[in-house]
Amino acid sequence: MAKVTLTVNGRSMSGECEDRTLLVHFIREKLGLTGTHVGCDTTQCGSCVIHMDGKSVKSCSILAVQASGSTITTIEGLAGNGELHPVQAAFKEHHGLQCGFCTPGMVMTAVDMINRHGGSLDEPTVRHELEGNICRCTGYHNIVKAILSANAEMHSGRQAAE
Amino acid sequence: MIPGEFEYHRPATLADAVKLLSELGEEARPLAGGHSLIPMMKLRFATPEHLIDLSGIGQLKGICRDGNALVIGAMTTQHDIIHSADIALHLPILKETALMIADPQVRYVGTLGGNVANGDPGNDMPAVMMALGASYRLEGPDGTRDVAATDFYQGAYFTALEPGEILTAISIPVQPVGHGYAYEKLKRKVGDYATAAAAVTLTMAGGKVTACSIALTNLSETPVLADAAAQAVIGTSLDEAALKAAATAARAVMNPAADARGTSEYRTHVGGIMVMRALTRAASRAAA
Is Nucleus among the key words of this record (chain A) (predicted)? Predict the structure, then answer.
């Protein structure tokens, strides 16, 4: 057994688990944060994407014990004071989800790509950056629109200020 | 989805990691990014009793210049390689290749050392390392040794690594200014291992190829250096006849598995096409 301590969505949390426990199961079953999903067993689908120390990672392929000491953000940690994160709002506005199963991972990946590309996102880059997330419902088109829209919104304020 | 039980270790030094690995023997595996090993464990293809996590060992990460080589720590991630100015300047084929490996999340975590030490012929970096003349530093209970990438791969999941040894760094000669390079990979979709892929580096002068190296991915049980194919283009202007000669010579050393990616004949055929395309693109990048 291992003791795992994490900073999750700004709060320190800890729990005991087996050494073999995957981070996604720790998040869902020990921490009760079930927005993070499991869509495959081969590290392909990206439904389990979270941020670990600021990077989007697939929590199905990381051990909880490996992650101990790290800072994690899950989909539950994105909205602030009941107000949707711009990426969440854009997925709603642009119909970037249907069944909603891939959406938490998609949104976490989108936030990461917007952070990294600093406003210079274009459609080919968005599609390339989405390569680790599979969606069965949308055909991706509206997800791309949502991410480009959120990116424009998140960077328009800064550009205006500059 | 559920791995078998094991005990987790996180040594703080390389010496401790080597000691653990040699004491625990075959039931222990080093854990790098974990993006080949953990998936294998989830399918119970691998059932180690001990995992030795290398992420606490700072010296295994980073890229530094050492004489005429770049030395890349084994735990350096694909993401780090894509964003390294030194790599972009001196070994741009690494960036090109890393961008064809897996997806953004996997590249944040998967390491160069894990990719080259894994021993799966599907991994892309081993052939690139062969084409570049890289060597691997191995640290074991009896000390340190260097093994050329061209001598490292013996079969599928069968490498020159001895029990207790850890691959700690990859040393790659800096490529000459103005060299041409290309990694051409045919795959069914993003994140797939290659149906066939070819790595090429070359230099040109006066419109003719002066030096060339070609290596092949997933076209045999191991990555393969296509020496005769490279020889076939040296001294030529890479006209159609030279390209065809290179493809023919490269096909002679291919022996790909038949699987969902196609028959052995198909993969050999497209393997030659990858060689021709990689040569053409490398030449277009080379200072003539």
Answer: no
Q: Give the mean pLDDT of chain B.
A: 97
User: Which residue blocks in chain A are alpha helix, DSSP H?
Assistant: 23-25, 64-67, 86-93, 103-117, 123-129, 141-161
pLDDT digits (tens, 9 = 90+) for A82-129: 999 999 999 999 999 999 999 999 999 999 999 999 889 999 999 999
Q: Is the pLDDT of residue B191 over 90?
A: no
Phi and psi at B259, nearest 5°, equal: -150, -160
Whether residue B56 lies within 8 A of chain A, CB to CB, comes out as no
Contact indicator for B186, B197 with CB cutoff of 8 Å = yes
- In chain A, domain spans: 2-77, 86-160
Is the domain spanning A86-160 CATH 2.60.40.3930? The answer is no
Out of A63, A109, A131, closest to residue B8 by CB: A63
**Number of neighbours of residue B5 by Cβ within 10 angstroms:** 10
Distance (Å) from the alpha carbon of B90 to chain A's nearest alpha carbon: 24
Q: What CATH number is given for A2-77 in this structure?
A: 3.10.20.30
Q: Is B55 on the interface with A (CB under 8 A)?
A: yes
Mutate which: A44, A62, A114, vs B, most B CBs within 10 A: A44
